[in-house]
Amino acid sequence: MAESERMIEDSDEAVPEIDMTLTSVLLASLDEARKKLEAGEEVVAFTSLAVKDKLIMEQMDGESAEEVYAYARHNVQHVRGADAYALCYDGYLDTDQGEKDALIAEGGVPGADWGYAVGIVYESDDEGNVTSIADEPIYIGKAPNFMILTNYEVDAPLAEEGEEEDAEAEAEETAADEEASPEGLTEDK
């Protein structure tokens, strides 16, 4: 049942603090995949997007894992107004005890350098019938964030050429004024 191998940065560290919305999206995605697995259905890769108070799920089509990831990246990387996303799929993990089948959800939030991956390990027999599913999800590690370039400010106008440098110069001048003034106060001019 394993769909593909995905390179996720392995971590022996404690679970990092993950954005609450992202955590909710990751767990909801795993829950949806678990329901399908328990019902004996095939778990086809899908994305989940948190937009305001809605969770929008869309199945990913593709002949290979690379196509699925490319399609998922394309679907979520520039979505404005989304608070988080997850890509959920049936895969496997390389462990000290060998390969383990797992439902995996990886996702991120707009502008973050990294995403995170969590999973639920399960076992199946030689015919592919699921024999056991772990009760609790596990933290897998850091994952690529398809929304790394998504801007938080949905309505912010794009800077005209040269405006960006003007804004940087103004910010530096303001910082210098604040640094020179007692306790960061500036005089009205």
Low-confidence spans: pLDDT under 50, at least 5 residues? 1-9, 153-189
pLDDT averaged residue by residue? 78
Order of helices and strands: EHEEHEEEEEH
Q: First CA to last CA: what distance?
A: 70 Å
Largest sheet: 8 strands, antiparallel
What is the number of E strands? Answer: 8
Number of helices: 3
Spatial shape:
globular
Write up this protein.
- This protein is an alpha+beta fold.
- The protein has three helices and eight strands.
- Strands 1, 2, 3, 4, 5, 6, 7 and 8 form an eight-stranded antiparallel β-sheet that branches.
- It is globular.
- The N and C termini lie far apart (about 70 Å).
Entry summary:
By secondary structure, this protein is α+β, with helices and mostly antiparallel strands. It contains 3 helices and 8 strands. Strands 1, 2, 3, 4, 5, 6, 7 and 8 form an 8-stranded antiparallel beta sheet that branches.
Features:
8 strands, 8-stranded antiparallel sheet, disordered N terminus, 189 residues, disordered C terminus, 3 helices, alpha+beta
Topology:
Layout: E1 9-10, H1 20-38, E2 46-51, E3 54-59, H2 65-76, E4 82-95, E5 98-108, E6 115-124, E7 130-133, E8 138-143, H3 163-180
Antiparallel strand pairs: 1-8, 2-3, 2-4, 4-5, 5-6, 6-7, 6-8
